[in-house]
Write a structure and sequence with these properties.
- The protein is of the alpha/beta class and 221 residues long.
- It has helices at residues 21-29, 85-100, 120-134, 149-154, 159-165, 168-176, 192-208, and strands spanning 6-15, 48-51, 55-61, 64-74, 107-113, 142-147, 181-183.
- The chain starts with 5 loop residues before the first strand and ends in a 13-residue tail after the last helix.
Length: 221
């Protein structure tokens, strides 16, 4: 964010298999950088950084429009069908320090499916994994992205009704990250207007955190 006319936000997507991590990353970038498809095994096996083109019309500061750049780090899922927890953790940790070691990480996006229940054991393992990656201040730098919101809507749930019916596990998680969450409609997320809405929400989360970035240890490699 050194250039006063430009802003770059650094994001990482984390989550379980088939939650839509890579698809969410593509939606945020407005591209198809990351491989994303249905599969009986985990699709993403290594970390990959995607960069958006210059995005205008999203943010203004001191009366002036800033050019926004979005960087998204796609990661292998945890648990993974072909990698151990240690292999996934070490791969993500190394990629975070390599790509964001200087500027820092603005938000980790925990990807959950809105059309599937979140079980306590599943949540505990995921939170432990994020804590190991980001450290004790993980809550300040984590937001929840609920994918497949279109399927929840088809089932008759508005966002308000969905949260009213959500499990205590999910509600506790959302509370722990200061209610930083976004519903992502997988059928509409590639539309320019929908993408702009999501990016503005992410920027609002970053603004609430005083534009701080989580500084990561840089790899010696």
């Amino acid at each position: 964010m050194a250039d006063s006319s430009e802003m770059t936000i650094n994001l990482v997507v984390l989550g379980r298999p088939q939650t839509g991590k890579s698809a969410a990353g593509n939606s945020l970038l407005g591209s198809s950088d990351f491989e994303s498809h249905r599969s009986p095994s985990s699709v993403t096996t290594c970390c990959s950084l995607g960069r958006s083109c210059r995005i205008s019309g999203i943010i203004r500061r001191n009366g002036c429009e800033l050019a926004l750049h979005v960087q998204v780090l796609d990661t292998p899922s945890y648990p993974h069908s072909g990698l151990s927890k240690e292999q996934v953790r070490d791969s993500v940790s190394s990629a975070l320090s390599h790509h964001f070691g200087k500027e820092g990480l603005h938000l980790a996006l925990l990807i959950l499916r809105a059309d599937l229940p979140l079980c306590p054991d599943e949540n505990d393992h995921t939170i432990q994994f994020i804590q190991e990656l980001l450290g004790p201040t993980w809550r300040d730098f984590t937001a929840v992205l609920l994918t497949h919101a279109d399927k929840a809507e088809e089932a008759g749930f508005s966002e308000e009704a969905y949260l009213h019916s959500a499990s205590s596990t999910l509600l506790s998680l959302l509370s722990s990250v200061q209610h930083k969450y976004i519903f992502l409609d997988n059928q509409k997320s590639i539309i320019k207007e929908e993408r702009a809405i999501i990016l503005r929400k992410l920027l609002n989360f970053i603004r609430q955190n005083n534009y701080q970035a989580l500084l990561l240890k840089q790899s010696k490699e």
